[in-house]
Automatic annotation (TrEMBL):
This is Carbamoyl-phosphate synthetase-aspartate transcarbamoylase dihydroorotase. It comes from Mannokeraia sp. 2 BJS-2011. SUPFAM superfamilies: Carbamoyl phosphate synthetase, small subunit N-terminal domain (SSF52021), Class I glutamine amidotransferase-like (SSF52317). Transmembrane segments: none annotated. It comes from the Eukaryota. Pfam families: CPSase_sm_chain, GATase. Residues 1-65 form the Carbamoyl-phosphate synthase small subunit N-terminal domain.
C-alpha cells in the first residue's frame, strides 16, 4: 500500500518513536525502513510547538544536526533551498507507461509526483492509464481525459508543463476534459496567467461561516474567494 517506490522526504521530525510495533502487518520498524532508504530523522521533538512556528512564520529552511552548533556561521555546507530546484523533474517518471491497455476511457496522467493510489482509482473504474513525464508533448498522445497529478515544489518551475497545457488548449477540434489535484490543479491556472500568492495560514469565509481546512500547498491562485493570513 505504498504510494511510491521510495521515500522522497529529505528528513523526518516526530514527537514519539515506537521501536517495538505490534501491528500484525508490520514487517520492520520505522527506523529500519529509514535506514534502508538513507533518510535521517529525529524524535522527542515538540511537534505542536514546531507546527505553531511554521503556521505563524510560514515554511522555513532547516537541517537536522547531531548537536547545537556553536554559531550559525559554523554551519557547513550552507542550507540549500529545495524550491530553487525543479523538484517535479526529479520525481517524475522518465518514460511513458501504460496500464490496462484495453480499458476505457483512456486517461493520460502527467506525472508530477504521482501517488500509486491515483493509478488504482482509475484502474478500478476500468480505465486505460497512460502515464507520461512532466515535460511530455501532450499533443502527441490520444486520450479521453487529461489528468495532472499532485507533486512537490513551486508550480512556476514547471514552465514546460505550463507551455504544453497552453498548446493543448490552443489545439483546434474537440476539447477533452482536463483535471488535476493539488499541484496539477494549480498548473491548470497558470496557462491563463492567473497570479499566485504564498499562503501562511488560510481560512474561508462563506455566508458568515468560518471553516478551517487542511492546507497542503504553500501557494494558491487568486480567486474571488477571500483568503486571510
Amino acid at each position: 500500500w505504498y504510494e511510491s517506490h521510495k521515500i522522497w522526504a529529505a528528513g523526518l521530525i516526530i514527537g514519539e518513536l515506537c521501536e517495538q510495533p505490534s501491528h500484525w502487518r508490520q514487517a520492520k520498524t520505522l527506523s529500519q525502513w529509514m535506514q534502508e532508504e538513507n533518510v535521517p530523522g529525529i524524535y522527542e521533538i515538540d511537534t505542536r510547538a514546531l507546527t505553531k512556528i511554521i503556521r505563524e512564520k510560514g515554511s522555513t529552511l532547516g537541517r537536522i544536526v547531531y548537536k547545537q552548533p556553536t554559531a550559525i556561521i559554523s554551519l557547513s555546507p550552507s542550507i540549500v533551498d529545495p524550491n530553487q530546484r525543479n523538484l517535479v523533474a526529479e520525481v517524475s517518471t522518465k518514460s511513458l507507461k501504460t496500464y490496462n491497455s484495453a480499458g476505457t476511457p483512456k486517461i493520460c496522467i502527467v506525472d508530477l509526483g504521482l501517488k500509486f493510489n491515483q493509478i488504482r482509482c482509475f484502474l478500478n473504474r476500468g480505465a486505460r492509464v497512460d502515464i507520461v513525464p512532466w515535460d511530455f508533448d501532450l499533443t502527441q498522445i490520444d486520450y479521453d481525459g487529461l489528468f495532472f497529478s499532485n507533486g512537490p515544489g513551486d508550480p512556476k518551475m514547471c514552465h514546460v508543463t505550463i507551455e504544453n497545457i497552453r498548446r493543448v488548449l490552443a489545439k483546434p477540434g474537440k476539447k477533452n476534459p482536463i483535471f488535476g489535484i493539488c499541484l496539477g490543479h494549480q498548473l491548470c491556472h497558470l496557462p491563463k496567467v492567473v497570479p499566485f500568492f504564498s499562503c501562511v495560514m488560510a481560512m474561508e469565509v462563506i455566508f458568515n461561516q468560518q471553516s478551517i481546512y487542511q492546507q497542503v500547498r504553500g501557494t494558491a491562485p487568486h480567486t474571488n474567494r477571500w483568503c486571510f493570513r
